[in-house]
Amino acid sequence: MKGLLFISHQTEKYSYLQSVQIALEGGCKQIQLRMKEADLEEIQKTGTESLKLCNQYEAQLYIDDHVSVCEEIGAKGVHLGKLDMSPSAARTILGNRFIIGGTANTFEDIRKLDEEGVDYIGLGPFRFTSTKKNLSPIIGLEGYRRIINNCRERHIHLPILAIGGITINDIPEIMQTGVSGIALSSTILNAADPVAETQRIVNLINTYQQ
């Protein structure tokens, strides 16, 4: 996984599904459906609708937390937080047909997730973010540089996405630490023109991958 990963978010202005539509219209090809406060039935319904949209835009859908929903609707993969099902248990259920991502805050987290067979890492938070509860210690630029270097020294080559309170102005310096991509939510949805903001972010990230 590389480039921009959009994480769905419900605001006073946009529903979860509308937020997915916005990111897709802006050219994002990777969507994570994150609905922390919703019940399983609502997640499955929104997931099904989100997958239809993603297919229209030739994008990939990942489900946050819920392995069963990922499997039932045929999403591309699942993202697992520290308090969710273990990646190895998820792999037993999903097999190799699905991508499994994991959340990390330290190099030790990454090492453990690598041993459990994840396909990518969401490493954060970069700074404080109001969209996530029970936040881990912030990492900052130096933290990303140190952790990426540790991964290289230990021959861990998992794609790593930076996440947590990132703005468009942060992207150049973060990408230069060696991460594979950026995960965003509020930065896009709080913009005056979120579709245009997504386009700008996609283009900016791409310039650091060429």
Helices, by number, come to: 9
Which strands sit side by side, in order, in the main sheet?
A: 1-2-3-4-5-6-7-8
State the CATH superfamily name: Aldolase class I
Report the strand count: 8
Which CATH architecture is right? Alpha-Beta Barrel
Query: Helices and strands, in N-to-C order?
Result: EHEHEHEHEHEHEHEHH
* Oligomeric assembly: single chain
Describe the protein's architecture and organization.
The protein contains 9 helices and 8 strands. Helix 1 (16-25) crosses helix 9 and helix 2 crosses helix 3. Strands 1-2-3-4-5-6-7-8 form an 8-stranded parallel barrel, surrounded by 6 helices. The protein has one domain (3-207): Aldolase class I (TIM Barrel, Alpha-Beta Barrel). It has 210 residues and is of the alpha/beta class. The radius of gyration is 16 Å and the shape is globular. Strand 6, helix 6 (140-153) and strand 7 (160-163) form a beta-alpha-beta unit.
Quick recap:
The chain is an alpha/beta fold and 210 residues long.
Protein traits:
210 residues, TIM Barrel, globular
Helices and strands in order:
Elements: E1 3-7, H1 16-25, E2 30-33, H2 40-56, E3 60-64, H3 67-73, E4 77-80, H4 87-94, E5 99-104, H5 107-115, E6 120-123, H6 140-153, E7 160-163, H7 171-175, E8 181-184, H8 186-189, H9 194-207
Parallel strand pairs: 1-2, 1-8, 2-3, 3-4, 4-5, 5-6, 6-7, 7-8
